[in-house]
Amino acid sequence: MSVPLLSTPELVLFIITLIGLGLIVSNRLRADLAALLVLIALGVTRVLTPQEALSGFSNSAVVTIVGLFVITAALEQTGVVAWLASRLAALSGQDEGRMVAVFMAAGVILSLVVNNIAAGAVLLPAAVRIAHQNRVPPSKLLIPLSFGTLLGGMATLFTTANIILSGNLVAQGQRGLTMGDFLRSGGPLVVTGMIYMLLVGRRLLPARESVGSTAVSTVDLRSIYRLDERLWEVWVPEGADVVGKTLAESAIGTHTGTTVLAIWRSHEARLNPAPDDRLLAGDILLLLGQEANVRQLASIGLQIGRNGVSDLNRNVPIELAEVVIGPRAPVIGQTLRQLQFRTRFGLTAVALWRDGRSYRTNVGDFPLETGDALLMTGSATRVRQLAAEPGFIVLDTPHVAPSPGRKAFWAALITAVVLLIAAVGWVATSEAMLAGAAALVLAGCISMDDAYRAIEWRVVVLIAGLLPIGTALVSTGLGARLGSILTESLAAYGPLALIAGLFLATVLVTQLVGGQVAALIIGPIAVSAAMSAGTNPQAVAVAVAMGCSVAFLTPIAHPVNVLMMGPGNYRFGDFFRVGFGQTVVCFITLLLTMPLVWQL
Predict the structure, then answer these.
(1) What is the pLDDT of residue 586?
(2) What is the CA radius of gyration of the chain?
(3) How, if at all, do strands 392-395 and 268-271 pair?
(4) Burial level of 375, CB count in 10 A (0-12/13-18/19+)?
(5) Would you say 326 and 120 are in contact if contact means Cβ atoms under 8 Å apart?
(6) Is-contact 73 454, C-beta < 8 A?
(7) What CATH number is given for 320-395 in this structure?
(8) What are the start-end ranges of the H helices in 514-571?
């Protein structure tokens, strides 16, 4: 098979796309910034007209996704999602297999109507709480929960990659996809995926406690967190430099990198002292830090240990909470010190868990990332206040069943009407979503300010920036050329071979750059290949869209996997060990289902 040389526009498009993907995969630049650079490059090189280069921001797929963000946020704020999650979690029982089935099914059900990340985030605290109550390691539940949300995303139109593939079809003059297309094709994958997890996958899951899981019923920090070498008592004698100064003025933490967890004074303990608390002679400070740093305090007149004894010889009366940083947290990229976290929330971070490792020194200086698990000390009241802050997921909090009110009723009703209208095709999906978002604002279910905050602008810019690649693939003819190559390579063996090859290619790309980028790059080529081969383009588009949700092999393939890493104490290889079989089952089910559903 001879491949003719690329034309100049095709070559330029190929180079720009390759560089853009390279920047995204290598993490040299933020994905949304790399997408903007791709957009600019396509316009500057005249591969696209300025109007075509900017068309992604007005694309119906982007409008649909924006509306979906607002609808999801309204369902969360009014308590609809939490109420549904609570009812589903109540079915879990005490048997481990039943818990796996319930939380996996809960992830599937919620992800049919809200995005996967929201579904995972709202179910995560319930899964950890129920695991603790029944003495089951959270690691036995959280990967099934994550995979459940991903499987549910295959059976609904309202997943980002699925919306993008539907837009690819429309852009090339084909019928867009409907809810029914995904229910018919993705439903069997949901069923077989759950069966695999219950029979095989759950036996491959590690049995590990999360960072804070054993802190539910005990306050012995030394044995739980192996902090013997990090926990110190420091006595403030008469004449010490810090006597009469506030904690902030003493600069104990700033100069030595230690954290003052408590002050004992007259047989009373003041936990999480504020920066303006004054130190008095005779105070005993409970410090968290490395020995070398703590020893430096002797230079300002402090004495390590009480009565000259440096061993901490009793349990520490401090309450603990585990907090996970959510994917859309506004604090991402900032440190706890920059946030003045201790002053604002009255909680102290004693450890940070990231990528399977615990950090216990200078925790306040780490820029926060999605999925970070923080161990906090503080009162239950303060912990509950933190749980109400956007982006902080507090695990194992006391369960209070939400009571949906009038706003919840209107949010559920409006969402149901929007989904019905979009499913039957009375109006375009983008118009239905935007109208639903506006109706939710008018009904008082969400404010305009909260609606703007709910939109993940990074995702919007990423998609709008990379969508012009699809336009360029069509206008330059490169998409048709690549489609012809695929047709000659795979379609000769039948339409199922073409679908299988595109599905596997999509799964591979998804593990590296995520399903959104995979849909934007492979989608236009897949539709062109289907049209060139005379294969049903809707069937091919659905297969590729579902491949974008097969993010089972690596934690970085989807944010919902990252969210489970810390609370489940997972390692990178855990996802591959469990997810490989899940991927194979999905692939086999796809090959068996597609000929029946689409008459291939």
Answers:
(1) 96
(2) 27
(3) unpaired
(4) buried
(5) no
(6) yes
(7) 3.30.70.1450
(8) 515-533, 537-548, 559-568
- How much is the pLDDT for 570? 86
What gap in Å lies between CA 185 and CA 596, rounded to an integer? 9
Q: Which residue has the tokens 């919007």?
A: 460
- 569 sits in the region (left: phi over 0; alpha: psi -120 to 50; else beta) called left
Backbone angles phi, psi at 353, to 5 degrees: -115, 120
Express each pLDDT in 126-169 by its tens digit.
Answer: 888 888 778 888 889 999 999 999 999 999 988 889 999 998 89
Instruction: State pLDDT tens for residues 381-392.
Output: 777 778 778 788
pTM, two decimal places: 0.79
For residue 600, how many other CB atoms are within 10 A of its CB?
Answer: 15
User: What confidence tens digit (pLDDT) does each residue in 66-77 have?
Assistant: 988 899 888 888
Cite the beta strand spans of 131-224 per DSSP E: none
Instruction: Kindly state the average pLDDT of the residues 368-382.
Output: 79
Q: What are 390's two structure tokens?
A: 């956007």
C-alpha to C-alpha distance for 109 and 131, rounded to whole angstroms: 20
The two structure tokens encoding residue 154: 């295959």
pLDDT at 316 over 60: no
Distance CA 65, CA 63 (A): 5
Question: What is the reported pLDDT for 356?
Answer: 67
Position 125, amino acid:
P
Tokens standing for 218? Answer: 């005990």
Return all residues near 500 (Cβ < 8 A) that are at least 6 apart. Answer: 490, 587, 590, 591
CATH class of 220-304: alpha beta
Q: Which residue has the tokens 């990198």?
A: 257
Query: From CA 317, how far away is CA 218, in angstroms rounded?
Result: 9
**423 touches 178 (CB < 8 A):** yes
Burial readout 121-142 (b: 16 or more C-beta within 10 A, e: otherwise): bbbbbbbbbbbbeeebbbbbbb
Show me where the domains of the chain are located.
8-209+408-598, 220-304, 320-395
The pair of structure tokens assigned to 411 is 């949010």
CA distances (Å), origin 464, targets 58, 473, 517: 8, 15, 11
Minimum mean pLDDT range among 209-213, 296-300, 417-421, 505-509:
209-213
